[in-house]
Amino acid sequence: QNAELAREGLRVLGIAYRRTQGEEAHWEQGMVFLGLAAMRDSARAEAKQAIATCRQAGIKPVMIT
After folding, report:
1. pTM (two decimals)
2. % residues pLDDT > 90 (the chain)
3. Which of 31, 34, 42, 53 could be stapled to 15 by a disulfide with Cβ–Cβ 3.0 to 4.6 Å?
4. Contact in structure between 44 and 64 (CB atoms under 8 Å)
């Protein structure tokens, strides 16, 4: 499911929990998986103009998220 959501351009977070009693060395063990949350992370409105400006200047823009 994670891969499918990511292919659609969504940011995916896995959500889990476990009860604790103070700080523990291996807090990530024994967690109960609750599910995935997918969010759309659209480019900023000014990104289109910034990309156009780069291309006009001979710069090949690469977007990394």
Report:
1. 0.54
2. 46
3. 34
4. no
3-state secondary structure the chain: CHHHHHHCCEEEEEEEECCCCCCCCCCCCCCEEEEEEEEECCCCCCHHHHHHHHHHCCCCCCCCC
pLDDT, one tens digit per residue, over 22-48 is 777 787 888 999 999 999 877 788 888
Q: Which residues contact 14 (CB under 8 A, 6 or more apart)?
A: 2, 33, 35, 36
The amino acid at 37 = A
Residue with tokens 């990394």: 64
Residue with tokens 């103070």: 22
